[in-house]
Write a structure and sequence with these properties.
This protein has 13 helices and 31 strands. The protein is of the alpha+beta class. Among the domains are: 129 residues, Immunoglobulin-like (Sandwich); 273 residues, Rossmann fold. Helix 6 packs antiparallel against helix 8 and helix 9 packs parallel to helix 10.
C-alpha cells in the first residue's frame, strides 16, 4: 500500500458482519454434537382491536385473547398495553435497530412511538378527488406525535426516518406540485417495448427532476433506494409480454392463404391476449409501473423489518400491485409480516376503465379512433383481483385498506387505529426452527370487534449486524453493487490492474485512488478521524461474482493534512483473490459519516 503525501492510512480487512457473526457461532460449536438452546424464543404479536367505528377497544385482558399457531393453541406468556402519549423528542431522532429478527429472546417491551414509511406509488395520483397528498401532509403536520418517526419514499429515492415532521410535510407538498410532470415524462419514456425489454433505469433527464424534488428539502438528505426487482418476477413479466406480442402477430395475419392455415395456432398467446384485454404497449407501460412499485415495496419492507418493534408502511397507489403470480404477492407480504411491518394501502384509482382508443381500420376516416364506452368483463375482473390482492396484503400484515375513500378519511382511520395496541408474546409449542412460515390466528372475546395483527412469521433466527453503522454500511454497499451506473459522490479512480499467481492462487492487483471531497471528519484530540469502507468485486463474462475483498481505510489526520486529503484523496493497492476468468471489476467506496457512495466499474480486457 502506498501513501499520499503526509497522510497515514491504515488498511485493515473487514468481513461482512453477517458472515462474521455466523463464523463466530460456528467456531464455538463442536463437530458431530447437537446444539442445545439455553433460552426460549418468544414470538411477539402487535394487536389492534377496533370497534365498529374504527376506534381502539382498550379494556381487554389477557384472558380475552386466544392465540393459534398453525391451528395449535398457544399459551400467552406476555401481555401488555400501550396507549401512545406525546413526549418531547429531538428532531434528529433515528429508529433503533433490532438485534434478532423473527422470534425474540427475553422479555418484550412496547415503544411509545410509531414508525411510518410513506410510499408514493407510480401513476398520476393527484388527478382525482381523493386528495391523498393533502391528507398525508395534514397527517404529518397535525396527527403525528412529536416522537413519531416518518420517512418518504417515491420513484427511486427515500428520505431517512426523522421526527422533523415539518420538513417531511414540506417534501410532500413538493411531491404534490411536481408529480404530474414527472409522471408524464416517465409514462412517455417507459412506453412500448422499452418498458419490458429496455433498461429499467430512469434516464438522466427525468432523474434530475426527481433529484431536484428531494433536494428541495435539504434537511432530509434523501438517498437512492437502488433496489432491483427479484429476477423471477422480471422473467414472468417478460414472458407475458412475449405472449401478447405473439397474439398480436397472429391476430394481424389472415386466417388462411390459398385454403391453408396462414400460421400455426398458439393457444397460450391467444389466451393471454383475451385474459388481459390490452395491447402489448398498454401492458408494457402498466408493468413498468408495477416493476417500480414492487421494487420499492421490497426495498421499503426490507429496510423496515430491520427496525425495532412494529412499523407501518403506508402505500398510496392509483393502480394496485398485482404481481404475475399469486405466490410472488404472498412472498412479499410474508416478509412484511415476519418483520412486524404492517402494510396499509390507500387505493386512489377509480372503477376499471375501458381500453385505450385504437384505430378501427381503413373503413374509418384517418385519425378517427373509437373507444369502448365501458370496461370489458376482463378488465373489471382484473381490477377486482387487484383490489383483492391489496386486501390480502393488508390483512396478512395487520394493516388497513382504503378503497374509493377520501384521503383524509383513510389517514384518519390509520391514525386512530395505531394510537393504542396490545403486545402479546408466546413461546411456540414447536421449538424446531425449521425456517418455515407459521400461520398465526388471534381470536378476541368481544362481539363485532375487528382484530388487526400479523398473520405469521418465519421460524428462524437471522442475525444482522449488531450496530447501526455496520448495518447501514452493508446495505449501502449492496445497493450500490446492484446499481447499473457509476456513482461519483466519492471519486474512485482505478489506475492499474494486473493478475498475479496461477490456478487457485490468483489475485487481481488493483491500484486505485479514492477521493472524498465532501467527507465529514470527526475531531478526536489533535486528529481528524474517519473511515471509508471499500468493497472490490471481480466478475466473469456472465457477470457472476468470482472474487471479492472488503477493506476499511481508517483515517487519523492532522488538521494541516485535511485539506490535502479532501483535494487529492489517497492512493493504495488492493489484492483481490479470484477463481475463474476475470473480465470485470467493480469498486465501491462508502463513507458512513456523510452517507456518500462512489463506484467504478472497469472491463479488464
Amino acid at each position: 500500500m502506498s501513501r499520499s503525501g503526509r497522510l497515514t492510512v491504515a488498511v485493515v480487512v473487514v468481513v461482512a458482519a453477517t458472515a462474521a457473526l455466523t463464523a463466530q457461532q460456528t467456531s464455538t460449536q463442536k463437530p458431530a454434537q447437537p446444539t442445545f438452546r439455553s433460552v426460549v424464543t418468544m414470538v411477539p404479536i402487535d394487536v389492534r382491536v377496533l370497534d365498529g367505528n374504527g376506534d381502539p377497544i382498550t379494556d381487554l385482558k389477557a384472558g380475552d385473547f386466544t392465540i393459534l399457531e398453525n391451528g395449535t393453541r398457544q399459551q400467552i406468556r406476555h401481555f401488555s398495553t400501550m396507549a401512545l402519549t406525546a413526549e418531547t423528542r429531538e428532531p434528529g431522532t433515528t429508529p433503533a435497530f433490532e438485534q434478532v429478527l423473527g422470534p425474540r429472546t427475553g422479555g418484550l417491551t412496547s415503544q411509545n412511538r410509531r414508525v411510518f414509511l410513506l410510499l408514493i406509488g407510480r401513476g398520476r395520483i393527484l388527478a382525482g378527488p381523493v386528495k391523498e397528498i393533502e391528507a398525508l401532509v395534514d397527517f404529518v403536520r397535525t396527527r403525528l406525535l412529536p416522537q413519531d418517526l416518518v420517512a418518504v419514499q417515491a420513484y427511486n429515492r427515500a428520505t431517512p426516518f426523522t421526527s422533523d415532521h415539518a420538513s417531511v410535510a414540506q417534501l410532500l407538498e413538493q411531491v404534490r406540485e411536481r408529480n404530474g410532470l414527472i409522471e408524464r415524462d416517465l409514462e412517455n419514456w417507459f412506453g412500448g417495448l422499452r418498458a419490458t425489454y429496455g433498461s429499467p433505469g430512469i434516464p438522466p433527464a427525468i432523474q434530475q427532476q426527481i433529484d431536484g424534488l428531494f433536494a428541495s428539502v435539504p434537511a432530509l438528505s434523501a438517498r437512492s433506494t437502488m433496489a432491483r426487482l427479484i429476477d423471477h418476477i422480471d422473467r414472468d413479466i417478460r414472458a407475458t409480454a412475449d405472449q401478447l406480442q405473439r397474439g398480436a402477430e397472429l391476430a394481424s395475419r389472415p386466417a388462411e392463404v390459398n385454403g391453408q392455415p396462414a400460421s400455426l395456432p398458439d393457444g397460450v398467446a391467444t389466451a393471454a391476449a383475451e385474459r388481459l384485454d390490452m395491447s402489448l404497449d398498454e401492458y408494457a407501460a402498466q408493468q413498468a409501473d408495477v416493476r417500480q412499485d414492487a421494487t420499492n415495496l421490497f426495498a421499503g419492507i426490507n429496510y423496515l423489518r430491520q427496525l425495532e418493534g412494529e412499523k407501518h408502511l403506508v402505500f398510496v397507489t392509483p393502480k394496485g400491485i398485482s404481481l404475475p403470480r399469486m405466490e410472488q404477492n404472498q412472498s412479499l407480504v410474508a416478509a412484511a409480516a415476519d418483520g412486524r411491518v404492517a402494510v396499509s394501502i390507500i387505493f386512489t384509482g377509480g372503477p376499471a376503465e375501458a381500453p385505450r382508443p385504437v384505430d378501427m381500420g381503413p373503413d374509418r376516416p384517418m385519425g378517427i379512433q373509437q373507444r369502448a364506452p365501458f370496461a370489458s368483463p376482463s378488465r373489471a375482473f382484473q381490477q377486482t383481483f387487484a383490489i383483492a390482492d391489496l386486501r390480502e396484503m393488508t390483512e396478512i400484515t395487520g394493516g388497513q385498506l382504503a378503497v374509493y375513500q377520501n384521503g383524509s378519511e383513510a389517514v384518519d382511520r390509520i391514525d386512530r387505529a395505531t394510537r393504542f395496541h396490545y403486545l402479546l408474546g408466546y413461546n411456540s409449542s414447536n421449538a424446531t426452527l425449521d425456517g418455515r412460515f407459521r400461520d398465526i390466528t388471534i381470536r378476541v372475546n368481544r362481539r363485532g370487534a375487528t382484530v388487526l395483527h400479523r398473520r405469521g412469521y418465519f421460524a428462524s433466527e437471522r442475525l444482522i449486524p449488531m450496530n447501526r453503522r455496520e448495518f447501514v454500511t452493508a446495505t449501502r454497499i449492496a445497493e450500490a453493487g446492484a446499481f447499473e451506473r457509476d456513482i461519483d459522490d466519492i471519486v474512485v479512480d482505478v489506475k492499474k490492474t494486473t493478475v498475479e499467481g496461477r490456478g487457485d492462487a490468483r489475485h487481481l492487483v488493483v491500484e486505485l485512488t479514492v477521493r472524498a471531497p465532501k467527507m465529514r471528519l470527526a475531531e478526536q484530540g489533535d486528529r481528524r478521524v474517519g473511515a471509508i469502507d471499500l468493497a472490490l468485486y471481480v466478475a466473469d463474462g456472465r457477470q457472476r461474482r468470482i472474487g471479492e475483498l472488503r477493506q476499511t481505510i481508517d483515517l487519523r489526520l492532522r488538521p494541516e493534512s485535511v485539506a490535502r486529503f479532501l483535494a487529492d484523496g489517497t492512493t493504495f493497492t488492493a489484492r483481490v483473490p479470484f477463481d475463474g476468468e476475470a473480465l470485470y471489476l467493480k469498486v465501491i467506496a462508502y463513507d458512513y459519516g456523510s452517507d456518500l457512495v462512489g463506484t467504478a466499474t472497469r472491463a479488464l480486457r
